[in-house]
Design brief:
Layout lengths: L1 H34 L4 H21 L2 H18 L7 H22 L9 H11 L9
Length: about 140
C-alpha cells in the first residue's frame, strides 16, 4: 500500500512541476494574446494548455483547479470560435483565473490541498462569459 502511495505522491509532484510550467507559459501567452488578439493560433494554443490543466486536475481530484480552468476554457472557446471579442475586462478575468490556478498549485505544494476559495473567480468567469462587465478590484 505504501508503494502505491509513493507512486501517487510522485504523480502529484510531476503534475505540480508540469502545471507550474504551463502556468508560466500561459502568462507569456496571455501577454502575447493581448498584443496580437487577432492571431487565432495564440488563443487556440492557450485553450489547449488550459484544457490540459483542467483534464489532469480533474483526473487527480483537484476540483477547484478543474472548476477555474473550466471557466477559463469556456471563455477561451468562445474567443477561438470568434463568438466574442477580447476586451480588457475579459483579459482581466482570465488573469484572475490564472492567478487563482497559481495560488491553488502553491497551496497543494505546501501540503494544504486546495484550501483556496474559488467561488468568486468561477462566478466572475461565468459572468464575463455571459457578457457582463466584472469590476476588478486592484
Amino acid at each position: 500500500m505504501s508503494e502505491m502511495s509513493d507512486d501517487f505522491k510522485e504523480i502529484i509532484e510531476n503534475f505540480l512541476v508540469e502545471t507550474n510550467e504551463l502556468i508560466e507559459k500561459l502568462s507569456n501567452d496571455f501577454i502575447n494574446f493581448e498584443e496580437h488578439s487577432d492571431e487565432l493560433e495564440i488563443v487556440h494554443d492557450i485553450f489547449r494548455t488550459v484544457h490540459s490543466i483542467k483534464g489532469t486536475a480533474g483526473f487527480l481530484g483537484f476540483y477547484n483547479m478543474q472548476h477555474v480552468s473550466h471557466g477559463m476554457e469556456d471563455i477561451l472557446n468562445k474567443l477561438r470560435h470568434e463568438e466574442i471579442e477580447l476586451t480588457e475586462n475579459i483579459m482581466d478575468v482570465l488573469y484572475m483565473g490564472l492567478d487563482s490556478l497559481q495560488t491553488i498549485v502553491a497551496d497543494v505544494e505546501e501540503g494544504n490541498s486546495e484550501k483556496s476559495n474559488v467561488e468568486a473567480v468561477v462566478s466572475n468567469l461565468k459572468r464575463v462569459l455571459e457578457g457582463e462587465i466584472v469590476e476588478i478590484k486592484r
